Amino acid sequence: MTKYYQQGMLIIIQEDDIARFWTKVDKECKNSCWEWINCKGRYGRFWVDGSTFNAHRISWLINRGQIPYEMEVLHTCDNKICVNPDHLYLGTQAENNRDRITRFNGKVAGRPKKFSIQEIDVIKDLYRSGMLQLNIAEQFNTTASTISLAVNDKLYINGSSYRAEENYREKRKNII
Ligand SMILES: [Zn+2]
User: Fold this and answer.
1) Measured between alpha carbons, how far is 143 from 169 in angstroms, rounded to an integer?
2) What spacing in Å lies between the alpha carbon of 82 and ligand 1's midpoint?
3) Structural domain includes residue 163
4) What separation in Å is there between the alpha carbon of 60 and the centre of ligand 1?
5) pLDDT (tens digit, 9 = 90+) per residue, 68-86?
């Protein structure tokens, strides 16, 4: 039995909780990600000690240890359902936004209007967090109108819309 604090709340995680945690993880995913199976939302969710928590935070607790108060567990892989501890690090949400932009900067230079679904995820998250479309556009070396299309699910990726790609991802998750 191990005691952890997350966001100031005590959680007790038993050995059998840890065993149950790993039955919900698929370690055979692209880019060495370990994805949460049957993920219904943006993040995997794991029930332990009477509450549900984001699965990647529990992964941090059982693999790395405590999460300091007001720190976030962030992804280097930008795959929210990934719980591979090697893809996780501690930081603030502001650092996360900055890091995600930096990670994509090299890749988007020179091709201003084609984005991957992961990049659109980042754009939408930045927009939701209150960043102006114009500022997002500057970071991604594109125009505000392209960002507007992205946040409104009207930007096409590989011939299909963001929404269609997302539905496909959801279906795939439910099949696994
Ligand atoms: Zn990952």
Assistant:
1) 27
2) 5
3) yes
4) 13
5) 877 889 998 889 999 999 9
